[in-house]
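Hi P.,

Sorry for the delay on this. The queue was packed all week, but I finally got your sequence through. Input first:
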Amino acid sequence: MSIFENITKRATVPFRYDIVGSFLRPQRLKEAREQLAAGKITPADLTQVEDEEITKLVSKQKEVGLKAVTDGEFRRSYWHLDFFWGFDGVEHIVLDHGYFFHGEETRADSARLSGKISFKDHPFLAHYKYLKQIAGNEVTARQTLPSPAQFFAELVRGENAKATALYYPDREELYRDISAAYHKAILAFYDLGCRNLQLDDCTWGMLCDKNFWSAMAGDGYDVEELLKLYLRLNNDAIADLPKDLTVTTHVCRGNYHSTWATSGGYEPVAKTLFGGEHVSAYYLEYDTDRAGDFTPLKEVSGEKSVVLGLISSKTGILEDKEQIINRIKEAAQYISPDRLCLSPQCGFASTEEGNILTEEEQWKKLSFIKEIADEVWG
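Then the structure:
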């Protein structure tokens, strides 16, 4: 029996109990990557291992009752960089340092321009084709991508800005090329049968944390101008898409080896992000008080949904069920409970290192989310 009355069953994305996308990499997959790097196996050998492990993963997702499944990002090293590297005009480079998270520095890989940005083909298309094939028709095969705004942020990060200025002395041309490349990529996924695409985006979380973004952008940056730019890049990329393609976004605050990058409530970005971004739903991190309270949810416009990331993917310890239910009730003071869902605050492995918990604990978390969702929404 639902604790909310007159709540309808959800038959479309997002679902009452949902995921963000990435899963812990199996040891066999990690070893295969090491063997490839050492020249002991071929790329085709690695692909076979990936295929087999993704097949197992999708089966397990179905087993725990998920209605939307991903490939766990098993073929990626990073949640964002691997996608950027697949565009024409982008190269894989290593900077002097990575991102500085709370107590830990990430690996220093990055994406830098080597020419004009364009989309012709992309390795992720073959990845999605395989996922769609093994997912079947009874569940939704979700494609996760880093957002256009995230791509821009990487291209102007540190020393990358020099190459960006070299190829794009006119910033307007850069903005147009980013959104156009994304738009073409999204339509290519659609042609393969993708009907649920999720844009993962740390840029909004960065703008919620003045100290973090000052270190990234330097003093004197204009928050309002960045808000407008991020919104423009994302909205231009997803404009005029087929009506049966559901586009959502996940707002992240950093998720690397169970550490985090930014703090601060959603107030600085709420009107722009929640009111202006043309997505169907927001997957929001709310697992700790670093994300602030639920008041900004009143800015979520139209009939857009919010997936509350109240369950931490950074630890294997299960939360207190009653506290989670009470927090859902609290969020429902600002947005209709019919527009709310539940998920982990992020993926379990935004990079191949993964968070510090076991695969068993990972699956217990998802079963726990379903248990709570069934109790809250019926």
